Structures are given as structure tokens and as C-alpha cells.
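Sequence only, no structure available. Ideas?
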Amino acid sequence: MQFTEISFAIFFSVVFIIYWLVLRRYVIMQNILLLASSYLFYGWWDWRFLGLIIATTVSTFVTAMGARSKYGFLLTVSNIVLNIGILAIFKYLNFFSENLQRLFNLLGWNLDWFTIDVLLPVGISFYTFQAIAYSVDVYRKRIEACHDPVAFATFIAYFPQLVAGPIERAAQLLPQIERPRTWSTEYASSGLRMVLYGILKKVCVADMLAIYADRLFLSSMSSPLIILIAGLLFTLQIYCDFSSYSEIARGTSRLLGIELMANFRFPLFSRNILEFWQRWHISLMLWFKDYVYIPLGGNRHSRSRTIINTFIIFLLSGMWHGASWNFIIWGAYWAIVYTVGKFAIGLSRRDDTIELSNLPSVAITFGVVSFGFFLFRCNSWHQMYAGFTCIWIYLLAFSLLWVITKIMCRTGISQTTMIFIGIAASVIVCVSGYFYWTKLLKAWWLLPALMVTVIEWRSRNMDYPLQYISKHSSVRLTLYWICIALIILSEPVDMTFIYFQF
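Reply:
I predicted one. C-alpha cells follow.
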């Protein structure tokens, strides 16, 4: 079941009532309920894959108990190998087999290579990485091994973040599962707001963008303009889709009294590419940093060694997203761009607040990100080749956007005026779309898209969207009703969360 389905609303309502009204004082029973609910939630996709997550749980729990013994290293490595082996079989075996077969065919050796026809278990990359991080942390004495099998199994299978992250650390999530939770109306209210906003962004924006992005990427990519628009639409789609899941996950978990980490911090407003990777899929990049980059030496050695380590991280990140060449090319693209940005241009990470005057650098960064996601989404080598030959359209379009935003910032245009311009432009497009029914855009979804843009811009320096209205009850209630109305009127299409494939 998906977060945007009626079945999930019924499922969560039942869990919520039992959790707080019946088992409020009994943390052990609450954990048993969470574990049973998590297995039901995961089994809803395909009950046959429950065996995999249970095997990961048992293996990780047992080996961690002996991680401090003289066989600790062997036990930890064996658990890592087991989990990566399961992941490799289900996610990468066919990819490597098919490419080896092509290689041997080129050499004139016709071999029938071994492949298996299996479905990819939902969320296997997420819970596998979470289990590996726990094993390593216990072995390194960063945390103590958990002795409560129910709490640990809940940590691995916790349903709000089970199938699409964030990849939680045991030091942050396990203590919350082990200790009693108390009800907080304010905390639950913020969680409900996150859930409602996430559903709005998913149903009214991401799903609509998916329709047009899919249509463009199934086309022949016959013009540079189509390549530009396809990259822009898919960038917005994947952000709205994945970030909306994270917001619903955080909000759902808050309703249960448990805090999950932020996985996105408004990355499309980043001012350079280094800052983008501080804000995009935070849990995954922190995982690679702590468990791959730093053990490889990080930036503690020569510049060439640092560059090699950076390439390894981004190539692995590409492979993590899927067993396909477009993901590897995407990882290589980011390795090159990141290295050039850091060492050739001298960009640095930024932690200060994002201001209106930063729009020119935001525009350039968005262009770099958009072309990367064009490569990420390509269905064939032909599309990738077309993208690289038409990269000039991205350079031209975003250079022009940089000039426009630079002029606007220098003339001292206000934030309110920019919002008004956006509303006016959207109304014009909506009216035009109503009368002429353009092939690319239908009118209605631009209104929630504009609403999402305004909300995210106003929330850009906060922890989550709509945090700024927490103390204004009348504004909050009005916004709730607007969100509900837009969701109901949107006639939702049945689009799966995009990151379930990872």
C-alpha cells in the first residue's frame, strides 16, 4: 500500500487508535504493534519478501551480539557480506550477467549466461544499508548492541521509513523505539501538517509532472527544446515525488511520537553543487560518507586520492539507484561536476540562510542539476547521446535565466512582487490551456504547483515546509482546507512513489 491510498489511511487509523488509546502506557506492546504493522505493511506489497527482511533482521541482531568478542570482526564482515550478497542477487545479478554476455559476444564467444527472473523487493536498498550501518557502528563501539529483539526488529522494519527511507542510524532511532513515548498535541499537529502537505505535493504536482515527463522520454527527443523541457520536468517530478514521501514519512512518524531525520532540505534552492549534495537525499550521502568515503581516506591524503574517493562515492551512488547504465553515467557526471566545482572553481559548502539575492546562483545550480537528472531518466544510449549533443540548450537557457534574475535582484524587486508575477503568469497559462488544451500542460495543476513553490521558498531556511505557520491557527486551518480541496479536485492518477524501485 502507498501513503496516498485509502487502504493506508484505514491501516494507519487503526494502528494510531490502538497505539495511543489502548497501549499508551505499555511501550513493549506498542513496539509489538509497530512491528506487526510494519510486517503487514511490507507484506502488502508481496508477502514472499518478508523472508528477506526477517533474514536481514535476524542475521544483523545475532552477529551484533557477538561483535565485541574475539570473533567480532569475522561476524560483522559475514553479516555485511550476507546482506550485500542478497542485495546483489536481487538487484545486480542480471545486469552484470547481461553485460558480460554482451562482452563475450563482441569477442566472438556466444555463451548462454545465467540470469534470474525476479522482482526487486521494495525498499531492499534502504533497510539493507540501515542494517549494515548498525553492524559497523556496534563493531566500532559507537553504540551498544540492542538486546531487545522486538525493538531491533522494529528499527529495521519501521513502516513509515521502510520502503523509501530515510536511512536511519541506530543511535538516533533505536533509543526512541526503546523508551516510552508521550503524546504531544503540538508535535502531532506538525506531523499532520507534514502529511497533508506531502500528499498535496505528491498527488497534485509530482503525479501530474510524471505524466508529461514519461510522455517526453518515450518520444524521439527530436529537438533541443524537448530535451530541455524533459530534463526540467523530470527534475521537478523526482524532487516532488521523493521529498513528498519523506515528508509523509516524517509526519506519520511524528503522529506516533517518533522523530525521523530530514532527508531533503529544499535542495532545488541550493546556491552551488556542493550545497545541493548537503540538501539532497541527505541520509544516503551521509551513509556513503561515513561508511565508504572516510574509511577510504576521505580528504586526509593527496588531492588525487580525494578525487578518486569522490569518484568512487558518486559511482556507487549511481549504482545504488539501480542496475542500469544511465545511473552509472549519472554518477560519473556528478563525480566530474563535483570535482570541477570543488577543486577547479573553488566552490565550498554553505550553511548560511538563502536570500532573494541568491537567485542567480540558484538558477545556475538548478540547470546543472536538471541536466544530470535528464541523464538519470534516459531510456537508451540514443537519448543520452542526444542529451550530450544538445547540452548547449541548457547552457543557453540557464545563462539567460541567470541574467534575468541578476537584473531582478539588482533592481531591488521584492519577494511579494515576484510571487505576484508568478501568479499572473500561471493564470495566463491556465486560461490559455483551458481554451487551447496544449499538449504539454493541462491548466489546473499549475495552481498547486505554484502554491508548493511559494510554500517551499518561504520555508527554505527551516526544518520542514509550513513550519512558519505553526502558531497561526486561522491561517493553518485555511491552508488545511485548501490542501484537502485541491487533493479531492485533482482526480488522482495511480502513480507509484518513484523511489520504491530503489
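Residues 185-217 form the longest helix (33 residues).
Hope that gets you unstuck.
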